[in-house]
Amino acid sequence: MIHDLWLVPAFPLLGAAILMISAGRLPSRAVALVGVVPVAVSAIVSAIIGIGFMAAPPSGHAFTEILWRWIAIGGFRPAVGLYLDPLSLVMMLVVTIVGFLILLYSTEFMAGDEGYSRFFAYMNLFVSAMLVLLLASNLLFLYVGWEGVGLCSYLLIGFWYQDAANGLAARKAFIVTRIGDTGLMIGLFVLFTHLGTLDIQPLLHRAASVWPHGSAIASLATALLLIGALGKSAQIPLQTWLPDAMAGPTPVSALIHAATMVTAGVYLIARMHGLYMLAPAIQMTVAAIGAATLFVAAFAALNQHDIKRILAYSTVSQIGYMFLALGVGAWTAAIFHFMAHAFFKALLFLAAGAITMRLEHHEHDIFRMGGLAKKLPVAFWSFLIGSASLAALPLVTAGFYSKEMILSETWAHGGAVPILWAAGLVTAFVTALYIFRAVFIVFFGEAKTPIVGRYGIRIVLPLAVLSVLAVIGGFVETPNGLGGVTIFSRFMGSVFGPAPLAAGATETALLVFASLVSLSGVGLAWLLYMRPAPRFAAWTQTPSVVAWRAFFLSGWGFDVVYDRLVVRPFLYVVRINRHDAIDDVYTGIAEASRGLHRLLKLTQTGRIRWYAGWLAAGSILTIAVAVIR
Amino acid sequence: MTTIPLDHVLILPVLLFALGVIGVLVRRNLVFILMSIEIMLNAAGLMFIIAGARWGQPDGQVMFLLVLTLAAAEVSVGLALIIRIRHRLTTLDSDAADLLQG
Q1: φ and ψ at residue A63, rounded to 5 degrees
Q2: Which residue, B85, B95, B60, B102, is CA-closest to A610?
Q3: ipTM score here?
Q4: Integer angstrom CA distances of residue B53 from A141, A345, B59
Q5: Closest chain B C-alpha to A609 CA, distance in angstroms
């Protein structure tokens, strides 16, 4: 069965191809079928392969299959090949299963949209590109998937293209991630010129034997790969595209945030972790960027009005946790958090979509919702479970175990790391605060917007399944104090090696501490937003607080800074250079030859006597030269 | 029989050739141009004869016969062209036939 691995990305690609070729002529029932079934089949094939892999692992816990030789130019012979190890297996399972649930949900959510067929075509292409990215055995083939998800995110964020703002958001996402992609591409050039191959496993082996620990070239290569990862995973300083990406339909946000696209950067660094271990300085940078991002984004999330923007900043913040984990060498913890995050963030987005689709005018502002707990119980319970998992409520949620693992390994990493650990801990508190702020404002208090419509099974089922996953997804890896299950880290062990763990007593203390932090965050949210004291309301209106809230609302002013520093100077230069200074050289050459032609044309009088005269003069001249010499 | 020095003999064809060239350049009537070309050809033929006589070789006269034939063919083609131009432009002025100017 493992030899049928190529079917996993092929099915969604086939679905996308059928939908694109049919060009919207299929009836909507057929579109839904063609849109969902390929990903469902992919999920089933992945599951069968996964079970087979776990039951009887291939030698070396990895499976490589070269499908065909892509090109051969001298020593440059990239292969189109697939590579399956526990890392890509877990990612593949999450992408196909979560992707399938999101697509199932979309069949009802997007019903009646005039771009129904187009939507499913893009979504299938998106899933397929992500699977290519995950399974590629070669960095160049990985890059194909990498650009594929970039393209699909552009198409889907700008899905409702009649509104110019959506087109702008799509362009922003494309351009900002493209800055990162350029870094990645240059990184590939550096790797190839120095190591002579782009096949990932040989490349890692060669790098480990050729490059000494901490060598400059390893730092350069990993830094360039990191730039690519920062763009795709929306980390500081390239995080600004993600909140604007909310312009797309809600299932798109769920897919981008949970399963595809933003986790690509995490995957890239985890996949190339052998290189990062050779460059400790860059790895430390990864941790620092992750810590900064999770902190910045959590405060931004705390001040948003739009329910989807809260979740968007929350994603930036949670990917920051993954980067933090990658930076301190807690590779397994990062992938564990990726899995937990995929479940609860998809759940949160789908629940948010389930709320907005039932509100009049698709209301997104949380302050115009309220009292929805009784009216929308399905959305309420799923959003609550997702929020609990995001806030890392102790014992019962997946988010608790994954976040706990990251924090304890950050602590165990030592060195200058207590700062990173403190950032993670403070953010855990803010995370609980901002998501339960949303819960209390949206679901309690008095109703402000009328409810319309009803849910079908295709909305309820994905929410239910994801709710279950957001709870039980964490039980594959628990800390020593709580059963000490290590299924996940043992499974990942063949990729990342055994994970260092904090000493028992410290770990338990950290565990209790982190639990208390999340619980107190929820408690504070309850105090502030369920029973708002007049003093708190007055405090939020004082001028300095208002200014800070506006600052956080704008995402710490990154957009303004980039607008001033990059966008406007660029547009200014473009305006000056409207007629392209470089082009003037070539226009000049053309003009000069045209001028010469105009001169020569004067001799072409058409009068035969002149021609004869020139002929005679030329002959005389020739003879004179011949005679005189 | 006194021999005339070669240099003196050569003056005649050179003069004839120069007259022909001048005729081509200054006359505008196509028939006169054709006649001037004939004069140039004959100047060249005369040169062949003189050279043949000077070195006692028959090649000079052979070449003259060739030039003569060539001239006959050239005149027939040239006259045909002149007739066509006369039909088309209703004039024999060579400067009027400047339709091929750049």
Answers
A1: -135, 125
A2: B95
A3: 0.85
A4: 88, 113, 10
A5: 5
Check residue B14 and give left, alpha or beta (phi > 0: left; psi -120 to 50: alpha). Answer: alpha
Cis peptide before A237 (omega within 30 of 0): yes
Chain A residues whose CB is inside 8 A of the B28 CB are: 609
Q: Report how far residue A249's alpha carbon sits from residue A119's, in angstroms, rounded to the nearest whole number.
A: 9
Confidence of residue A414 (pLDDT cuts 50, 70, 90): low
CB < 8 Å to B94, chain A: 607-609
CB of A606 less than 8 A from some CB of B: yes
Q: State how far residue A584 is from chain B, nearest Cα, in angstroms.
A: 28
According to the model, what pLDDT value does residue A395 have? 77
Report if residue A307 sits inside a domain: no
Residue A254 lies in a domain: no
**Range of B62's domain?**
28-92
- Structurally, chain B folds into a number of domains equal to 1
Phi, psi for A27 (deg, rounded to 5)? -65, 155
Owning domain of residue A620: 579-628
Residue B63 sits in a domain of what CATH number? Answer: 1.10.287.3510
The 10 Å Cβ neighbour count of residue A511 is: 20
CA distance A64 to A80: 11
Tell me how many domains chain A contains. 1
Domain-embedded: residue A611: yes
Looking at the complex, report in whole angstroms how far the Cα of residue A615 sits from the nearest Cα belonging to chain B: 10
Angle, alpha carbons B82-B87-B88 (nearest 5°): 100
User: Which among B25, B26, B101 has the least Cβ separation from residue A606?
Assistant: B101
Place of tokens 């949206």: A442
Q: Span A566-581, mean pLDDT?
A: 87
Indicate if the pLDDT at residue B1 is higher than 70. no
Those residues with Cβ within 8 angstroms of residue A341's Cβ, 6 or more apart along the chain or in another chain: A258, A263, A315, A318, A319, A322, A399, A402
At A227-242, the pLDDT tens digits run 999 988 888 888 888 8
Cα A282 to Cα A151, A202, A205, A225, distances in angstroms: 28, 22, 19, 10
Q: Is there a contact between A426 and A518 (Cβ–Cβ < 8 Å)?
A: no
| Residue A332, token pair as written in the block | 């397994």
Contact B102 A603 (CB under 8 A): yes
DSSP-H helix ranges across A359-486 = 372-375, 377-390, 398-413, 418-443, 457-472
Residue from the list B21, B26, B94 with its beta carbon closest to the beta carbon of A608: B94
| CB of A102 closer than 8 Å to CB of A124 | no
Closest residue by Cα to residue A337 from A416, A427, A276: A427
Interchain proximity A605–B101, CB inside 8 Å: yes
Residue B19 in any domain: the answer is no
The three-state secondary structure class of A78 is coil
Contact present, A287 and A324 (Cβ < 8 Å)? yes
**CA–CA distance, A390 with A296 (Å, rounded to integer):** 17
First to last CA, chain A: 89
- How many CB atoms within 10 Å of residue B102? 11
What's residue A246's pLDDT?
A: 85
Distance from CA of B14 to the nearest CA of A (A): 13
CB-CB contact of A138 with A204 (8 Å): no
**Chain B touched by A622 (CB under 8 Å):** no
Name every residue whose Cβ is closer than 8 Å to that of residue A116 and which is 6 or more positions away in sequence.
A24, A28, A31, A110
Q: Is A605 on the interface with B (CB under 8 A)?
A: yes
Residues whose CB is less than 8 angstroms from the CB of residue A559 and which lie 6 or more positions away in sequence, other chains included = A240
Answer yes or no: is B37 within a domain: yes
Mean pLDDT of A200-222: 86
Give the pLDDT band of residue A43 (cuts 50, 70, 90): very high
